[in-house]
Give the backbone structure.
Amino acid sequence: MNLKEKNYEIAKWCATNIYDMDGELTAFIRNELNTRYYLLKDISALIWKMIINNETYDKILEFANKNGESQADLDNFLSELQEELLITDKMNQKMSLKEITNKGCAVNDDEVNCINGTIERKMQTWQEQHKVLSNLNLALTYKCNQNCLHCYNHKNMMDYEISFEDIKPVIDEAYDNGLFSVSLTGGECTTAKDFLKIAKYVREKRINLIILTNGINLYDNEELFNEVVNLYPEKVSFTVFSLNPEIHDKITGMKGSLHKTLSVIQKLSALKIHTEIKHFITQYNCNEFSQLEKWIRENNVNFFLFDDKFYNNPENNNSHVAVKSEQLEKIYRSYTEITGNNFPKQFDLSDKAVFENPICIAGQSKITVNPNLDVVICHFYEKKLGNLKTNSIMDIWHERTCDCQELTNYRKLKLKDMKDCYKEKYCEYCFSCPGFAGENFGKSEYLCERAKIIYKVNLENEAKKALK
């Protein structure tokens, strides 16, 4: 491509935003083709911003020259951006899906993954410290095409749905103030009337996109499936309860749901779209993990989240599906035997600095919007902060129209403020969720029991390894 022809632009598979990091202009970029993160500083970040704004090559060259950079320097920089697939020409933006997936294989190199982790953690830490709203979780609707036994969504919100007209100005304002990633969830987000319109707009803004779905509509509607693929989401997340259709379909309340969900996961994985499986453990599927774990490895699913969290919503009368402690212990033991790994610690109690950490990322750099446009700290900690019908997202985020200081007080909470916690060795395995701890931020019977079991299983696993 001749750079002087002015036909380059930010690649549609990139997510990006620009930040003033303590006086240093910084562009934060994620490339979905190679799953890499990038940071550009100062002049490089300004040139990147000019490309975002569709400035011509001559304008960019003029700016570079004023800042002491030659045309050769600029051309070399732009060539590097091309080689990393961060900018492209309009012809390449229209490459076939097959050509794109072949050109941008997922990177598994340990060194690259280490660099990615460092960049991501650096940005996350800075965003949290400076209270940048970088992550927006949109529960588009609580309606769903399944009827799961454990469902914790509020039935009194089934008639509400986030529309494109409602959320567009929210996305615009949040992006102008540092938004980098949007998650679309529900209910089943693809049942929302404006799901695709909202998802497309998010990506048009070069905002990172995560989709949480059961995959049913993506299976039934090939056009919708292709539209989602062409959005280049960071990941598409599914819940699979069992590889036994009788068990999975019983939990979802929908015959044939397992076949549809697995088919969509396989199709996405074949196209190198990152997929995540959440394995939500209940009374009905507490012996299914080993087979599912094998299937995940064989089908090259990129992410696997071992999820045993249980949220009891009295409104939906779902407490009967909760897994018992002895069942959870058996499952955890199976996990260590199959993977050969211990469960990781959430933190090291010997490091006193960890007690100064915030309780959770929610409220620090992330917030949730419910279908009725209520803004809450988290889906599991539904402390209402305001409503987007009457206040802007940034006014709510900075509490400019509220004297309650609810979010400010929540942000001040540290791990050390969790009452009666972190006094035992097993506490290192507690994930400290305020949604389970309750209003007083004290001990959660469920979280304590879970941490004790993990600690016990890890000790047993270490003892077995020592005998070999």
Notes: DSSP finds 18 helices and 14 strands in the chain. The radius of gyration is 23 Å. Residues 138 and 407 are 18 Å apart (CA to CA). The first helix runs from residue 42 to 52.
